[in-house]
Automatic annotation (TrEMBL):
Transmembrane segments: none annotated. Pfam families: Trans_reg_C. InterPro entries: OmpR/PhoB-type_DNA-bd, Sig_transdc_resp-reg_C-effctor, WalR-like, WH-like_DNA-bd_sf. CDD domains: trans_reg_C (cd00383). The keyword 4Fe-4S does not apply. This is Winged helix-turn-helix transcriptional regulator. It comes from Paenibacillus ottowii.
Amino acid sequence: MIRLQFDADGYSVVYNADRVMLLAKEFALLRFLYDNRNQVFTREQLLDRVWPLEYPVERTVDDHIYRLRKKLKAWTGLRIHTVRGYGYSLTLTDIQPRNHPSLHDQEVQDAVHGLFRKYHLLGQGDSIVALAEQQEQLGFQMSAYYQMYIRFVQADVSWFLKREDFAPADRLYWMLLLYTGTAAVTDHGLALCERAFTSGLLSSDQERELRILNILEAYVEHGQPERAQEGLPLTFMIMERDDLDKFVMPVALMEMYMHLVANHMEKVAELSDRLEGMLSVAPYLRELGRYRMLRGLMLLRTGDVDNAERLMDEGLGTLDMAKQELLKIKAVSQIRSFLKLCGPYPMLEEKYAAQYDQLDRDNCLTLHRSALKRWLEQILSVA
C-alpha cells in the first residue's frame, strides 16, 4: 500500500522520491484524512478537527480539498473521494509487489542505470525523479548512490539526517555539500571541508571532486578567490591525468565565478565565450542554469542592471525547471553575496533576500542547520 511520510516542520509530504510542499492547513487536513483513511467525514467534522478554534465556512474545506487534489494528482495510489451530499474520504490503493523478470535481468538493470547516469550528466533532475518513481512499474532496483543523489539535488537535509540505514561514511560527502551549499560559507564550513580530506571517510572519487571543485568554489564564496586560483593548477593536472571530461564545464563555471568575484573582467569574458561554445554543443540544464546566472552577474559588473536581473532570473528558472533545488539555493546565495560586493542595489538585494527566505522555509534549511552542523562535527571528530 502507498505510504506517505509527513514532515511537520516544513509542511511537506513525501511518497517515494517525490516531495510536495503544502500549506499548514492543507498539511493538517491531509494528515487527518490519511490517519483516518477509508472513513467518510462531513465538512462540519473536518472543520471541527482541522480548524478547531477558528470559524471558517464549509467552503473552506472544499477549497482545501481542491488544492490537495491538484498538488497530489501524480500520486495515483491516493484518492480523495467526494461522497455526494455528505463529505469526503481518502483511500489508498493496495500496490502488490511485483516480481518482474527484469529485476533479475542484468541487461535491464544496466540499461536503467545507464539512463540515470545520462540524466545526471545532462543535469535533468526532473527526469531522474520521474524515473525513480517508476521503479515498481518498470521493475528495477535503484542504487544507493541515486537514492542519495535524488535527495541531495532536492536539498532534503531532513532525509539525510534520518537515514540511519545508510552508513555515516556514505552520507558524509552529501551532507558536507548541503552544509556549505545552503547558506553563506563560513570559516567553520571551510574547516569541515578540510578535515574531511584527512578523515579517511570519503571515497577516492568524492575526495577528488571535493579537492578539484567543491572546496575551490567554497573559497570563492568565502571571499577568497585567490585561494581558489592557487588550487586551479592541481585541478587541471588531475582532470588531464584522470581524463575527467565531465568536469570541464563545472570547473569553467567555477573559474568564471572566481574571476567575477575578483573583478578580472577580461578573464570573465574569455570564459563566457568558451562556455557559450560548450553549451551550444551540450546544453546541459544544470550548467545552462548556472551559466545564465553568472552572465547576469557579469552584466551587473558593467552596470546593465535590467539585463542582469533578467539573466539571473532565467538562470534560476532553468534550475527550478530541472528540479535542481540545491543549486538554486546556492545560486540565490551567490547572487546575494555578489550584490553586496558590487552594489549597492537595494531593490535587487530585497528581491533575492525574499527568494532565499522562501527557499529556506520551503526546505527547512535554518530549522535543520544546527542538527546538520552537529552531525558533521561528530562524524569528523572521531575520524
